[in-house]
């Protein structure tokens, strides 16, 4: 088993950041390490314990390049419409633009998907059976010295990506996680709103 970083549970939860510019594009990622992290992720809860999730792990450069091109197209439309208003959003925009240009070079891409019919109306029950496991995967990767960032921009071209990867129509993609070792592991908690501004006790 891969040696884990010496992090307490609270440290792990609060320092698993969105990593883009600090992804090490030159260091290979053994598939066994990704499998270890996925084994941990599969312990996440799912509706009715049905575990209808699927994990598409991409390592082939040609396949990654095709997916990255769809991501790039979607990102260009997204970045053209965004508002950069301060230093923080400018930094985020720069980081996001960087990932767009290097996504094909990230050692591993993982797409989390869920099998079943998408319900009409509120879909929380459906996606609640996938997204906790995807976040557990991000945590498990961080514990092993790897990083990722949560992105869904490729879903603008979900059907085209499904055709590239041979994903059947009843399987719906939910998240794309670019996976690489990180340049350093000294991540810190990020700035967040004050808890009392979003906390509602016994009602709104």
Automatic annotation (TrEMBL):
InterPro entries: Nitroreductase, Nitroreductase-like. The keyword Oxidoreductase applies. Coiled coil: none annotated. Keywords: Oxidoreductase. The keyword Oxidoreductase applies. Residues 17-178 form the Nitroreductase domain. PANTHER family: NAD(P)H NITROREDUCTASE YDGI-RELATED, NADH DEHYDROGENASE_NAD(P)H NITROREDUCTASE XCC3605-RELATED. Belongs to the nitroreductase family. This is Nitroreductase family protein. It comes from Amycolatopsis pigmentata.
